[in-house]
Amino acid sequence: MSHLIDIRGVTHAYRTESGPLPVLDGLSIAVPEGGFTAVVGPSGCGKSTLTRLIAGLMIPDEGEVRLHGERVTSPRSTVGMAFQNPVLLEWRTILDNVILPLEIVPTKLKRREKEERARRLLSLVGLDGFEDKRPSELSGGMRQRASLCRALVHKPEVLILDEPFGALDAFTREDLWQTMHQLRAEETFTSVLITHDLRESIFLADEVVVLSGRPATAQYKLPVPDTGLRTLDELYTAEAAERLNILRHQIEIAQGRAEPTDTASQPAPPPGSAAQALT
Ligand SMILES: Nc1ncnc2c1ncn2[C@@H]1O[C@H](COP(=O)(O)OP(=O)(O)OP(=O)(O)O)[C@@H](O)[C@H]1O
User: Fold this and answer.
1) What is the number of the ligand 1 atom nearest to the C-alpha of 49?
2) Is residue 66, in this structure, part of any structural domain at all?
């Protein structure tokens, strides 16, 4: 299988006043074309650092990040990003905020075509009629929907989502999860999602990677079977409960609160799953 995102043996340390701070230690993750990988792990273990490396905003000390086989050494226009804080520009309308990447990334599209693309995405996420509003006139959930459209408007190959739903209330967050599924059905992209929400990870991703404590490595990888467009009901099945238990246990190991060898308290992988412990 071809891997669009290939993170190979990445090791990285920040230089701080008190000396080097090792953050990632031989981390390897591969995401196939069209795949959706969620990355979870203890707070401060290096998840956002990983997104900066994929986006080419930083170069790792050792190892490499490849997109389509090409080594990433600088930021690329083929990557879209959405963060916890949508940072929309108040002096632009929602439509013009979404169009912004098309003004930065070289494109042959005419203004009318850029508008059509932005309007289609806004309609897809349920923001018809809000194109001419300013960001402050929208709710937090609506702003995050607009930010997803902005991240996708230039048809990036890779969509990096760093806690995009983290600041939203539980109901809005669940709405946005379903919106993400709809976007995935309509648009073509390969995604890495950073999240602290284990339910979000199994609802959205094909694979959940649990990072160890800092310096982080890929401690555990849990595949999530493809069930097409998922519904929230699927989060309340026995299989979902088992997956969440496995992930919770792995997070406890990563936090040093459970022993890796403590198999007695570790639930068995769901029937038929290829859950794979890497420790
Ligand atoms: N530019 C930087 N310079 C120095 N240290 C940094 C820098 N950015 C992050 N760090 C440190 O590196 C470690 C990993 O940070 P990172 O933001 O990647 O973790 P994270 O897993 O995303 O955290 P959280 O789950 O809390 O969002 C933290 O200890 C952080 O303080």
Assistant:
1) 18
2) yes
In a domain, 70, yes or no: yes
Query: What pLDDT, in 10s, does the model give residues 125-172?
Result: 999 999 999 999 999 999 999 999 999 999 999 999 999 998 888 988
Q: What is the pLDDT of residues 94-134, one digit of tens each?
A: 999 999 999 988 888 999 999 999 999 999 999 999 999 99
Instruction: Record the tokens describing residue 259, joined without a space.
Output: 């022993």
Q: Is 63 helix (H, G, I), strand (E, B) or coil?
A: strand
Domain-embedded: residue 149? no
Longest dimension (CA), the chain: 62
Cβ 213 under 6 angstroms from ligand 1 = no
pTM, to two decimals: 0.91
Q: Is 21 in the pocket of ligand 1 (CB under 6 A)?
A: yes
Instruction: Report CA(48)–ligand 1 centroid distance (Å).
Output: 7
Query: In total, how many domains does the chain have?
Result: 1
- CATH code for the domain in which residue 21 is found: 3.40.50
- For residue 46, the CA-to-ligand 1 centroid distance in Å is 6
φ, ψ for residue 54 (rounded to 5)?
-65, -40
Give the residue carrying structure tokens 């570790």: 266
**Ligand 1 atom showing the smallest separation from residue 163 Cα:** 27
Residue whose CA lies nearest to ligand 1 atom number 2: 14
- Residue 111 covered by a domain: no
97 lines ligand 1 (CB under 6 A): no
Give CA 260 to chain center in angstroms.
26
Sign of the C-alpha dihedral, residues 22, 39, 244, 142?
A: positive
Which of 40, 47, 51 is the best mutation target for the ligand 1 pocket, counting ligand atoms within 8 Å of the beta carbon and taking the most? 47
- Domain enclosing residue 49, as ranges: 3-77+206-277
Q: Which residue has the tokens 């963060």?
A: 83
Please work out, in degrees rounded to the nearest 5, the angle formed at the alpha carbon of residue 234 by the alpha carbons of 232 and 235. Answer: 75
The answer, yes or no, to whether any atom of ligand 1 lies below 6 A from the CB of 43, is yes
